[in-house]
């Protein structure tokens, strides 16, 4: 057991065991390791204060202070851990190395499914996520940079971490974006460290030459929210004055591409754009070759939400995209990379034993304009999922509890599912939205995810048969 690092934040949970008395001595049997041994009074006291759910070391120390010297405690915990009576855990104390910064909760679109719509009223397009609507200040942005550089361990030789600019519409606060990027680079130069990576998720409508220059200067990766076809875009993502948004978006996408900047499209799937192949074909016409599809969820979906039948249609639509990809690869033609399928292929190939759906709350957190941290942007404004504040630091106790609930072993459905090690338990927000609990997956999303994995298996098999080298280049994102 490694007890180094910030020991105070270590956590432990008891594993199944049996304690018994023989000849006036206490013995213990650790079920999972099969170890049996005699235990001292101090070992028994410590063990009795460790529940089957995780508890922080500082809390164990408080409970046992009357009986066990603080200096002895770590040795006792090490003994109990080495023999399999308890299990240590430290994921909740890992540095946050990736921050989604809410540059603005204001927006210039009025999307039907805006998931920030918790506090929305008619004159508050974009949605406030239940927070005060506001824009991030430069001061808060600089604090985020300092926090990231400090916690991601960069000054100790660790990674520089990453910043994703998010909203609302982040380009409604372009000045602060520029300030954050410049400040981060200045700090990196000052400390002789790598610069954090930058990315942005934008609706594209405010893209102009200034933004293009910022992207080039600061190497900002661009993800555009666009629903794949003009019809879906105009219906689902009208401007705040109710106008069609596609004409302006098309101009923006063409401007970005003419400047040689690669983009990924994030297409929200509603019942308006279930034929994914149409979106793929349209993206080709815009010279865009990377897309991720996400099922619509959120504010005002009644007319557009997917029914069970629509989910079946969507499964076939992913099959169509799989066939299109294989055909293109066989013909040696360029193809639009569907991230859902290609990341599933990569997962199948080498990244098994996935215990968490994503990095939310682990290495990733979102930062709201008021300085609060949440496990990810989808949970912004929700107190139960706030894990700290930029001025006060991380609440390790709360983060630990959430990370425990996010582990797929705590999901009853996942324990019995063949896809567990590939899936990790599904997006915590989808789970929460479907079942008001992050540990209970959405049945519809599970079925879709498993179908996507099967499509990816077929693709992998066919592409490997065709040409092994091409298969590996696809996995490495180099074609
Ligand atoms: S598909 Fe559903 S049940 Fe299976 S591992 Fe994923 S979330 Fe769990
Ligand atoms: S919880 Fe869902 S929305 Fe949040 S980072 Fe994970 S996958 Fe993305």
Report on the structure:
It is a single chain. β9 (197-202), α6 and β10 form a beta-alpha-beta unit. The strands form 3 sheets. The protein has an 11-stranded mixed sheet. A 3-stranded antiparallel sheet has the order 5-1-6. Among the domains are: 5-89, Outer Surface Protein A, domain 3, CATH 3.90.930; 93-306, Aldolase class I (TIM Barrel, Alpha-Beta Barrel). α4 runs parallel beside α5, α10 (308-331) runs parallel beside α16 and α16 crosses α17. The protein is of the alpha/beta class and 479 residues long. The chain has 17 helices and 17 strands. The structure holds iron/sulfur cluster (SF4) (2 copies). Residues 357-358, 360, 376, 378, 427-429 line the site of one iron/sulfur cluster.
């Amino acid at each position: 057991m490694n007890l180094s690092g910030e020991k105070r934040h270590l956590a432990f949970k008891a594993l199944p065991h049996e304690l018994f008395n023989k000849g006036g001595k206490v013995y213990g049997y650790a079920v999972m390791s099969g170890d049996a041994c005699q235990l001292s009074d101090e070992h028994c006291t410590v063990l009795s204060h460790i529940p089957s759910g995780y508890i922080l070391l500082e809390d164990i120390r408080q409970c046992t202070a009357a009986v066990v010297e603080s200096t002895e405690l770590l040795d006792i915990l090490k003994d109990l851990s080495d023999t399999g009576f308890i299990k240590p855990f430290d994921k909740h104390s890992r540095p946050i190395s990736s921050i989604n910064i809410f540059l603005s909760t204001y927006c210039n679109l009025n999307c039907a499914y805006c998931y920030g719509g918790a506090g929305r009223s008619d004159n508050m397009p974009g949605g406030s996520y239940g927070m005060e609507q506001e824009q991030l200040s430069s001061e808060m942005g600089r604090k985020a940079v300092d926090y990231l550089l400090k916690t991601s361990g960069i000054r100790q030789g660790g990674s520089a971490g990453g910043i994703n600019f998010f909203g609302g519409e982040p380009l409604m606060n372009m000045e602060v974006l520029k300030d954050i990027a410049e400040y981060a680079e200045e700090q990196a130069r000052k400390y002789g460290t790598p610069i954090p990576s930058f990315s942005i998720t934008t609706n594209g409508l405010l893209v102009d030459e200034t933004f293009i220059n910022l992207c080039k200067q600061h190497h900002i990766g661009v993800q555009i929210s666009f629903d794949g076809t003009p019809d879906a875009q105009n219906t689902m993502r009208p401007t705040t004055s109710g106008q069609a948004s596609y004409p302006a978006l098309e101009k923006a996408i063409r401007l970005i591409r003419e400047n040689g900047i690669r983009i990924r499209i994030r297409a929200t799937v509603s019942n308006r754009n279930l034929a994914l192949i149409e979106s793929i074909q349209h993206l080709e016409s815009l010279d865009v070759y990377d897309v991720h599809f996400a099922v619509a969820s959120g504010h005002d979906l009644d007319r557009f939400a997917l029914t069970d039948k629509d989910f079946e249609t969507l499964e076939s639509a992913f099959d169509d995209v799989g066939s299109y990809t294989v055909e293109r690869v066989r013909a040696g033609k360029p193809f639009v990379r569907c991230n859902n399928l290609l990341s599933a292929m990569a997962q199948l190939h080498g990244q098994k034993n996935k215990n968490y759906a994503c990095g939310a709350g682990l290495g990733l957190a979102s930062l709201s304009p008021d300085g609060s941290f949440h496990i990810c942007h989808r949970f912004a404004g929700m107190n139960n999922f706030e894990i700290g504040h930029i001025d006060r630091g991380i609440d390790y106790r709360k983060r630990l509890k959430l990370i425990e609930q996010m582990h797929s072993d705590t999901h009853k459905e996942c324990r019995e599912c063949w896809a567990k090690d590939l899936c990790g338990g599904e997006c915590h927000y989808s789970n929460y939205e479907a079942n008001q609990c992050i540990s209970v997956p959405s049945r519809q999303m599970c079925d879709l995810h498993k179908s996507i994995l099967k499509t990816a298996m077929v693709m992998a098999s066919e592409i490997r048969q065709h040409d092994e080298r091409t298969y590996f280049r696809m996995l490495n994102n180099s074609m």
